[in-house]
Write a structure and sequence with these properties.
Layout (H helix, E strand, L loop, with lengths): L10 H9 L2 H22 L4 H17 L1 H14 L3 E5 L2 H14 L4 E4 L3 H5 L2 H7 L3 E4 L2 H9 L15 H12 L7 H18 L2 E4 L3 E3 L4 E6 L3 H7 L3 E7 L3 E2 L5 H12 L7 E6 L12 E7 L3 H5 L14 H5 L1 H6 L10 H12 L1 H4 L11 H5 L6 H14 L5 H15 L1 H21 L1 H4 L10 H5 L1
Parallel strand pairs: 1-10, 2-3, 2-4, 4-7, 5-8, 7-10
Antiparallel strand pairs: 5-6, 6-9
């Protein structure tokens, strides 16, 4: 099947290739284990379940009145001097951003990490039009010079080892090889410092926007976020409409949950609240602030049966506990958003007809739903979307026939026992018909548990 843009999602082939990459497997295992352990430590001894319930109810109320909060935010942000734009589609957002940059004579752009700009493929659009775009988040900078896309929504270069990054810097930046993270960070810092000082414009995302103050909020762990939002004379914020908070009083709850769930930190390193454009009496030049609110199908999702997916606060906790993501990384999904939340969101944004192969990327173990800090029912949504895939006829024909056959056998004790008895003899034939699948499965035992028990 095809995605918008004409690219195929061959999830099973992608996953198979990822499983054959030992370096990727080691990097993913180390990273996900580290994040899981840090998160467990961060939520130990706190009323985490109580906070989850509060956050879930808050997000439910927001999605139920999303248009009202968008309108309120637009009014209050405008009062503070920001210029608010609404983009119905990804193409609308790209056109708006391009027009803003051209109107302000901007050519050189620095960016802080933004998954929404990845969703609308902004960097490629701007590069094709002759703009110079530099990612300044270290992980995003690494994958930009590698010519890759993010493999995690929080840590974009999670799939690369420090040795690989050192070799990449040596080849692309002309520096001496080092696999010391401190040395690599210092190399990037020195190069990026000049980009901050010379940029004509900046583009950032937002973790949330606050309706009653017209403010946008950024959680960051690197100083690049502050540099991007303060140094260039033009700042463009790109965020999606579901990221609303009704009031500044709701922010502390998000501050408790997001860092703990995302990176296992009690608090994020930098919390920035930006309310309107900088005043003329600031020590720096007055900054022009534009805010682009992206819909891109979210209003339709909010009105549909899968609306709870919009509760997601993009922390990445579901990815860090997912056994599928932990084995294959994010690039196998061939989608902006990987992992359990990415399977659902990509299917809803791109359509079942385009994204249904991603629904293979789950064991339905439910670990993702247990980890979600805002109680998105990820397991339920995955199950329902898989049911819809079958109902719409997008599942594999052989798989469908096999499952119906198993269903019949499982309901009839005689057929089930006969199947168990003949499995050993038929196994070589199954290996010929489907070698990739069968060769990964354990061979049938000669004496089943039922026979041993009886």
């Amino acid at each position: 099947m095809k995605k918008p843009g004409g690219q195929s999602i061959n999830f099973r082939d992608n996953a198979r290739q990822a499983l054959q990459n030992p370096t990727l497997r080691r990097a993913m295992r180390h990273a996900t284990e580290t994040f899981r352990n840090k998160r467990n430590d961060a939520i130990d001894g706190i009323p985490f379940e109580e906070w989850r319930e509060q956050a879930s109810e808050l997000r439910k109320s927001i999605i139920g009145n999303i248009n009202g909060y968008v309108d309120e935010f637009a009014v209050n942000a405008t009062k503070r001097g920001a210029i608010v734009h609404r983009a119905k589609t990804a193409a609308d957002a790209r056109d708006l951003i391009t027009a803003i940059l051209k109107d302000n004579g901007a050519k050189s752009i620095v960016k802080s990490k933004s998954m929404v700009t990845e969703e609308i493929h902004l960097n490629k659009c701007l590069a094709d039009l002759g703009f110079r775009v530099i990612e300044t988040d270290l992980g995003e900078y690494i994958i930009q010079i590698a010519g890759e896309t993010p493999s995690h929504i929080i840590v974009p270069a999670i799939h690369r080892s420090k040795e690989q990054i050192g070799q990449l810097f040596c080849e692309k930046l002309g520096c001496d090889f080092s696999d010391d993270p401190a040395v690599l960070t210092d190399t990037a810092r020195k190069l990026l410092r000049q980009e901050f000082l010379s940029a004509d414009a900046a583009i950032s995302g937002a973790n949330c926007y606050i309706a009653n103050t017209g403010s946008i909020v950024l959680f960051t762990n690197e100083g690049n976020g502050r540099m991007v939002t303060t140094l260039p004379p033009l700042h463009i914020v790109v965020t999606s409409i579901e990221k609303a908070l009704p009031s500044i009083d709701d922010l502390p709850l998000l501050m408790r949950l997001l860092p703990r769930s995302a990176t296992g930190q009690v608090l994020t390193s930098y919390l920035s609240i930006i309310s309107g454009q900088r005043m003329a009496y600031s020590t720096m030049d007055t900054k022009r602030l534009h805010i682009v609110l992206l819909d891109n199908g979210r209003s339709e999702i909010a009105r549909g049966p899968y609306w709870e997916m919009l509760k997601c606060i993009k922390c990445g906790a579901c990815m860090n506990v997912c056994p599928v993501y932990g084995m294959i990384g994010g690039h196998a999904y061939a989608s902006t958003y990987p992992g359990p939340m990415g399977v659902i969101l990509s299917t809803l944004l791109n359509g079942l007809e385009n994204a249904h192969p991603l629904l293979d990327a789950t064991t339905l173990c439910g670990a993702c739903a247990e980890a979600c800090p805002v109680k998105v029912p990820l397991l339920k949504l995955l199950y329902e979307l898989r049911e819809m895939r079958v109902a719409k006829g997008y599942n594999n024909t052989l798989e469908g026939v096999s499952m119906r056959g198993f269903g019949i056998a499982a309901k009839n004790a005689h057929i089930f026992r006969t199947g168990q008895a003949s499995a050993g003899a038929l196994w070589p034939l199954a290996g010929i018909l489907s070698p990739v699948t069968v060769n990964r499965l354990p061979k049938p035992v000669k004496r089943t548990f039922r026979r041993r028990f009886s």
